[in-house]
Write a structure and sequence with these properties.
The chain is an alpha+beta fold and about 475 residues long. It is built from nine helices and seven strands. Helix 5 runs antiparallel to helix 6 and helix 6 packs parallel to helix 9. It starts with a helix and ends in a 13-residue tail after the last helix.
Amino acid sequence: MRLRRIAIGFAALASGCLTGPDYERPATPVPASIGNAARATEIALPIWDVYFGDTVLGGLIDQALATNRDLRVAVARVEEARAQFGVRRADLFPSFDLNAQESASRGPVLGAPTSIVTRRYDVNLGLLSYELDFWGRVRRLKESALASYLASEEAGRAFRLSLIADVANAYYSVRSLDERADLARRTAATRAEARRLIERRVDAGVASRLDKLQAESVLESARADAAALARQAANARNALAVLVGRPITLPGPSGAALDDLPLPALLPSGLPSKVLLNRPDVLQAEQNLVAANANVGAARAAFFPRVTLVGTTGFASPQLSGLFDSDRRAWSFVPSITTPIFNGGRNAANVDVAEARKVVAVAQYEKSIQQAFAEVANVLSDQAYLEQQYAAQARLAASQDERLKLAQARYDAGLIGYLDVLDAQREQYTAQQALIEVKRARLAAAAQAYKALGGSQSVGVARAP
């Protein structure tokens, strides 16, 4: 086995190739298209401020990208990886140091009556230990460091993309909770007025005390709901402020806040799976695989001789005044070659470790693609079914509005009891709250689509047919 590896190494040296396997991208472990295969379309996604089209949300995202502390950590880690790559890349080049020194000693000298002081002055330019990279070990390590740096860059881009989507989701949650709380307050005000009317009817003897108690019950229920939703809205504001990194100011509830927010255009019903390869998390996993593959080559190169050069050139003199005279030149050159003979199987174990880590990296890369496929498929299905749900919920809310008007009119005419009015009120309120939530879900699905498709460097949007 050792002779075989040595033979491979000499063949690599003769051909100028690097030791170890060159990187090849694994096959994509998902179908060729996502969603409707017959209508799979590749398109360009616009930049986030154009995609969302909301000036308030755009300002919040700008602030988050500038002040979010977690993003600062991610950026710093990218800079750290870049510096580490610079350190590894420097190993490809020889290092030179300029050294100047004086040495002095006092001691007895044979034949001299007293001890004397001897001095020596040296100035030299030294070549530090420089490895001639015959087998590509240093180049493989540099390749691994570059891939690790690129992986950290993709991790930073993935975090940035997640931050944009998180801010958008938090913003939509705040606006929807504001609208729901405002609906609950308006409902409570309407029910308070209805209770006053019931009290007059009770005083006039045309309504029962039970009607009054039922009116009070639905009134307090609306007030409790308004308080609960206001609390949730305040908490959602706090969460958004943490994402943004500073206190925020949003427009107050308008009664139809989500209707005023632009809804990003719909995606096509089908997308080619190759768009997944542009997602930053997938690119990060691939760069980790590239690094693992390069480390296999570096580990295999350890089986072959290592040639290093050490040398100095300069001047040496017992007197400082004559240090740079031509006859004071001095140099040394110490090339060396180190061949592994026996190390208890350490090199073979290092190769096994590197190859096992490559297997792990391949599996993680394939898993990242599968997860990306599932996320995009979910986005497409959410988009399709939320449109249907929204249309049905809007019709339901309109129907419940009409039902409440009819029930109130029939009660005023004495044709039905107040319990029928209460049922209509509850159903109408529930339908309106559900409609607001569906509006929020549509906006949240659009934010998730931007993240799932990798932002503006991947695929984009097209109007629904």
